[in-house]
Amino acid sequence: MTTTPLQPETASRSSDDQRASGDDLGRICILGAAGSLGSEFMDLLRHTKTAGRPNTAATPTMLVGANHADCDITDAQAVDRFVAKHRPDWVILTAAWTNVDGAEVASDQAFAVNEQGSANVASACRRLGARLVAFSTDFVFDGIDHQAPTPGQMRTRPYVEQDEPHPLSVYARSKLAGDQAILAASPNAIILRVGNLYGLGGHNFPARLADLLTRRARDLRLDNERIMTPTWSAQVARQAIFLMEQNALGGLYHVTCQGQATWAEFAHRLCDLLDLPHDFAEIASADLNLPARRPAYHVLNNARLANLGWDLMPPWRDALDTYVSLWRAGHEIDATTSSMNNAEDSPTINDTNTARPKTHDQSNHRRNT
Fold first, then answer.
1. What distance, in Å, lies between the first and last C-alpha atoms of the chain?
2. What is the CATH number of domain 2-204+230-260+297-316?
């Protein structure tokens, strides 16, 4: 667990009505701080690794970064003790089960983390007067246009916050159940629905793909059908902190970069930026033979942010350009740490030279969404 005092402590905590918006965010606890998204929050709020990255002037008086060993979110009493000990103004919940395919054979564990764990954190926040920021997934939608005259027709309009979810997988159902549990327990919680994340650590599609292409790995295959929006996790963290600064109303917000692409299109853009050969095959989603169903279309419209004039998310190509420029400037990405096939927010790369993991210990599932 990492505890960082960042400003002189105030004499007492503010109430919800008194909590100021602006640069001083009070005391913040991050659950899942070592994951890809959690580490982005830690870097932004400690103002480290700022060169060229999304940044914020916001500074908490205290920042506590916790992982599973520090606070098991499936243990309600442990969560209560943790929140009572640190007395946060904000709790940022990035801990989650994100193994989409693994959830198909471990549904009890997925729901224990994503539904019950989320409920435990939300309930503790409500009882102890903290506000919660949590994360949902674009996988709660099925990609079908339910208003089309032809049944089963693929959707072509980005989803807004009011659209009805139709989850296809155990993972997606567990995340939707978590969203509902959070808002039932803590109606002023902020839930950010995100997806297709990549970043400078954790599950890292650009580094993984670049490594395989550089080594001339054989038979790389990428999905050229599923339509989504690649999103840099640092941009999500910055957007979330902005909402915290505004002391935004609770509820659901869609937060992805702008535009849409397939994973094959994203890979082509990455190869262009890194001067790498486009040595991969583009295949249909069904040919990946994944255990869990994914939506064919899961593009989000950040409608609520846009209506408030608060949408900070850039086009996905601009975000990727900045990300790659940081990489080239010496902010190295360790491809050996990228567990591509475990994450909801990364595509599957089929490669005959790379063995795919078949079993996963429980710690691998409590990563950022």
1. 20
2. 3.40.50.720
Using CA of residue 361, residue 35, residue 33, residue 137, what is the dihedral sign?
negative
The encoded tokens of residue 211 equal 């490594």
Domain limits, the chain: 2-204+230-260+297-316
The set of residues, in sequence order, having a beta carbon less than 8 Å from that of 8 and lying 6+ positions away, is 61
Which residue numbers are catalytic? 171
Angle, vertex CA 316, rays to CA 313 and CA 318, nearest 5:
90
Report how far Cα 94 is from the mean position of its chain's Cα atoms.
7
Closest CA to 190 of 121, 99, 268: 121
Can you give the pLDDT at residue 205? 81
**The pLDDT value given to residue 57:** 72
Whole-number Å distance between alpha carbons of 189 and 71: 20
Mean pLDDT for each consecutive 10-residue tract of the chain (369 residues)? Answer: 55 39 79 92 82 73 92 96 96 96 97 98 97 98 94 95 98 98 97 92 75 82 95 96 96 98 96 92 94 97 98 97 84 38 49 32 38
Give me the count of residues in the chain.
369
